[in-house]
User: What shape does this take?
Amino acid sequence: MKISGAEILVKTLIEQGTEVVFGYPGGQVINIYDELYKHQDKLKHVLTAHEQGAAHAADGYARATGKVGVVIATSGPGATNLVTGIATAYLDSIPMVAITGNVSCPLIGKDSFQEVDITGVTMPITKHNFFVNSIDKLAGIIREAFKLAKSGRPGPVLVDIPKDVQTALFDYEPADVVAPYPKKPVTSAAIAKAVEIIMAAKKPYIYIGGGAISGDAGKEIEALAERIDAVIGTSMMGLSAVPTKHPRFLGMVGMHGHYAASIAMHHSDCLITLGARFSDRATGKTSKFAPEAKIIHIDIDAAELEKNVRTDVGISGDIKEVVEKLLAVLPQAKHDDWRSHVEELRKKEAASDPVDDRFSPKNIIRLLNTYKNAATPVVTDVGQNQMWAAQYAEFEQPRKFISSGGLGTMGFGLGAAIGSAIATGERSVLVTGDGGFGMCLTELATAVTYNVPVTVVILNNTVLGMVRQWQTLFFGKRYSNTDISNRQTDFVKLAEAFGASGYRAENESELKAALDAAFASDGPVVVECMINKDEFVLPMVPPGGSMDDLIVKVGD
Amino acid sequence: MERYVVAVLVNNKFGVLNRVTSMFRRRGFNIDTLTVGETQNPKLSRITLSFLGSDNKDQIIRQLEKMPDVHKVQELEKGSSVSRELLLIKINNSSEARQDILAIVDVFRAKIIDYAPDSVTIEVTGESGKVNAIIDLLRGFGIIEMCRTGIVALTRGKENVLATDAEIEEGSEG
Ligand SMILES: Cc1ncc(C[n+]2csc(CCOP(=O)(O)OP(=O)(O)O)c2C)c(N)n1
Ligand SMILES: [Mg+2]
Assistant: This one.
């Protein structure tokens, strides 16, 4: 029996294991929404307040589970509203399928109402995209989109479906969930060279990125660290791949990395890099990056090798497989001098972090640690709030730190927190800023509609803090357009206006009371924390600097 | 800076050339010449690209290889490949210049393909160096218009870039 393209789409989404789609209807997807209505027992649709929120929610869903996130939007403005969300997913290699409607084929290219060349627009921010120009290709393209999104280095794929393809009739043959493309086998020559370098090392350091999470290699990485007596540091994207309290784990490196993690990397003589792409935010000045180290770079994407830093061995392949191969041949090593050097660095770090009872971002995040559990997704927005969360939140399981790394998208947080809570069934915690929350707070409506359990912690410093920090340090305190204290937004009333609960905390006991209420609730709760606008994120490697230039303290 | 030539075997499909050139633009790589045409397998097109590069050649090739519409990328190195460019060039003609023009055409084994009392159009094929050389010589007569195709190239011997049918089948849909 022939069915419509819209129905083929929905059936194919279900067939590919999709349980939830995020989206927003419109004229060019109305047929798809009709089918979503008819198939609502098998496929749940979450209506957001804005397509950007839908894209971030699909992204958060994917980050929290590793499954492909799916988002649907109409043509024209619906499609362009997805762009920031798609780019966010692309820069962080998150598997996503974005479906857009478009005007009917005969109207394409005529500047028709709500026509946008969305495949053209998204070409540089998708792994691939498709324009479906005939009904016979539709199911195959949807399957291929899923396959590409989850193969190798994951990423977003967009499928643009004109209205006449949605209404055309064709046969539908169910198929299995597509498997990713097979991974290229790792050559033994590359492994041998890496083994040689590792065996000669005296100060081994394992540096991991988001690929350690998408490659599900945390346990193997811990085993490798034990075997070669290495320490572990991470890029921001690699946070939660290894438990924060793991004795070999030093923390995050980069512009706002932890002291011991960053300095130890600088001193290391062998840097085993797994699924990290040496972004400028992580490396600082590349010419002075890990100057004493031989660099082994292992990544699923061959194009990452030699892209940003010089490497001594580059291995393109599945991280887990590579680490297993290394484990099969590497003997047990012991590097007492190195370990005690690192211990010294850690002591120094601890000494510069005195315990106090200020209502500071650090203490707020540390308090949050005592409320959340191992399964809680910690989501962030972008700015100082993000860095404080990255520095002080603690993780026991992978996929629990959800943050826009590569694109640094303010406004990412709330949508992603909703998506990750829906995906996991766990109450998610969003750490956000007064600026970034203001960008996409309309998704509170979504959280209320579906009673999504999210605790939104706004670190309200009344400024665009991260930009202001740069203005303080590098622009002579000329605070151009970063003071937003005159906005007078009352976030508590705002939460209530949306139908959520809101609390304001000016000290620890108020925060505790608010969090007690939030964690006892089954829906969205907003907790606004009033903090000082002059709080800094430290340490900091100044832009263009290296770990040598790490700023640990700021004078007045 | 050195000039590299690569052959890129791609799906013969709408929009693919755009994807390839857009990748060059986005990554800040400069394309020097570019030719595209169908291969003996109508499902595939061959893009021959030349670019000036130094340490970014491998990166460019890897970025190309990662595109779903790209089946194969091969560098065509000078020693192990043959390359040609075609030039059509229209220059001023006059009775005084005629003999000199004919001599140049002869030496370069070029062809006159259009002739008028005040203009002459010449066809030249050869490696880029030869094409550059004849342009320099003809400049003195006054170039009215010229058009060159960019490089096409093949490896020497039986080696080839063409993917097997199996490799093509596993490529992407649509
Ligand atoms: C969409 C977007 N616009 C602008 C920026 C630049 N930017 C980075 S951090 C920041 C300030 C963020 O302020 P806020 O959300 O209050 O967080 P805070 O740094 O104060 O914690 C800005 C403007 C960005 N990252 N994303
Ligand atoms: Mg702020």
Remarks:
- Residues 188-351 of chain A form a domain with the Rossmann fold fold (CATH 3.40.50.1220).
